[in-house]
Amino acid sequence: MLFPRRCSQCLISVTNRHAVVQRSCSTIQGEVRVRFAPSPTGFLHLGGLRTALYNYIFAKKYGGSFVLRLEDTDQSRLVPGAAESIEDMLEWAGVPPDESPRRGGLFGPYLQSRRLDIYTQAAQQLVESGNAYYCFCSSQRLELLKKEALRSGQTPRYDNRCRHLQLIQVRNKLDQGLPHVIRFRLETGVEPFQDMIFGWNHHDVAQVEGDPVVIKADGYPTYHLANIVDDHYMKISHVLRGSEWLISTSKHLLMYRALGWEPPTFGHLPLLMNKDGSKLSKRQGDIFIQSFQRDGVLPEALLDITTNCGSGFSTHRMGRRINELISEFSPSKITTHSALLDLEKLPEFNRIHLQHRIENEEQCRSLIRDLQGQIQQTFTTDIQDDRVIQEHYIKRVLQLRKGHISSLKELLTPVYSYLWVRPSFSSQQVAALTSEAQHIGSLVLKMTITSVLQINLKTLAKQTKITKHRELMKLLRLALSGLQVLFLLTQSQ
């Protein structure tokens, strides 16, 4: 099994708010394998997509593999349909995994609930080596410990009571069939580790935490054990995950050492935040990828805006596509400060990428098919002329409006409905503009027949008695679009 070696001559200074840290740039050697390992306790959101994207780009940059693993060990919180949806959304976004529950691979299964025997074996190995032990403390006792700690102003932690049980006591309790968990024995003296992004780190977890559970009473592993077991057996070379896991890495390295395994290289990505610096919360319903898809946001626009506000790239211009993101990506350019996301700019990103699609012949045909279905669904029986849903007509509309619209859905709004259905208006609306409507109509017909309408509409007003140019234009707008206000041009500017 090959792991990347660090380049000792490539030291990069990274300045954060509090200190200057030194980190080394890895020389990528051997097979690169990275993973995105979400929990299907919810649907994929923008923060998760960003983590998946950085892993995908890293893998493709260095000719490696991008693995999707679903960490579904918390059975009580699983959301029906979430597992399938996560993979659906990755494929829609253009970051498909090379190995996954759906695609399979040499290192499966890729669902943790189907790997329980592997975790049990690892836990038993830890128990037999003295690095883990059986814990029989009841939930009532643990709750009392927590309340007492809070009452005295301390951080709740397990008091490691069961690590002192004698072997005969453990055997007797097991023989009685008492409920139990397995806890990992935290030791002091944790060695510092070097993170690809945050540099040298050291968290002596034994000083602040009690021994963590690695196998729960239901036989399922906790995240702390399952993720290192899977990363080992799936031969993951680099772990790129959110910086919220940085403090847990020392704990995971203790487990690697206890199992006698070589750990992967760790890189913790700075968090994705709202533009005001607040946390991007799942309770914001609009951050789920399905919501963006439903609202007509293009996947490449999402990838562009999430990398544009972050770091790791040589440029931050708008309009970059996935091949450009891969070519411009450099791990050494990832900084430690949070990425501030301004979703108010998303329509502008979408406008640029929609224009790219319209200008691409194959992608434009796909847009046309999509728009054909949406037009028929939106206007149904109101369509009086089938020519408006023909390919050449819709293509002409797209070419004329490219660079002005931010999504196809805009073309289905009342502002653009005249493109698909015959405008309707009342005689009262016409009368409110001018009493010369019939006269003006006959003049316009004559001009269209002689193909001179586009030359100068101002001359038309000179042939009317009381109608000024402004009212004339309002009348034409009403007749052609059913609109009295010039929404079309105001949205285009």
Automatic annotation (TrEMBL):
Localization: Mitochondrion
Pfam hit, one: tRNA-synt_1c
Every Glutamyl/glutaminyl-tRNA synthetase class Ib catalytic domain range: 31-346
GO process terms (BP): glutamyl-tRNA aminoacylation
One MF term in the entry's GO annotations: glutamate-tRNA ligase activity
UniProt xrefs under Gene3D superfamilies: HUPs (3.40.50.620)
Major place of residence: mitochondrion
Keyword Protein biosynthesis appears in the UniProt entry: yes
Keywords annotated in UniProt: Aminoacyl-tRNA synthetase, ATP-binding, Ligase, Nucleotide-binding, Protein biosynthesis
The keyword Plastid is annotated on this UniProt entry: no
GO CC list: mitochondrion
Reactions catalysed, as given in the entry: tRNA(Glu) + L-glutamate + ATP = L-glutamyl-tRNA(Glu) + AMP + diphosphate; tRNA(Glx) + L-glutamate + ATP = L-glutamyl-tRNA(Glx) + AMP + diphosphate; tRNA(Gln) + L-glutamate + ATP = L-glutamyl-tRNA(Gln) + AMP + diphosphate
Class in the EC hierarchy, top level: ligase
EC number of this enzyme: 6.1.1.17, 6.1.1.24
HAMAP family in the cross-refs: Glu_tRNA_synth_type1 (MF_00022)
Family matches, as PANTHER family: GLUTAMATE--TRNA LIGASE, GLUTAMATE--TRNA LIGASE, MITOCHONDRIAL-RELATED
Record family assignment: Belongs to the class-I aminoacyl-tRNA synthetase family. Glutamate--tRNA ligase type 1 subfamily.
Name of the protein in question: Nondiscriminating glutamyl-tRNA synthetase EARS2, mitochondrial
Name of the encoding gene: ears2
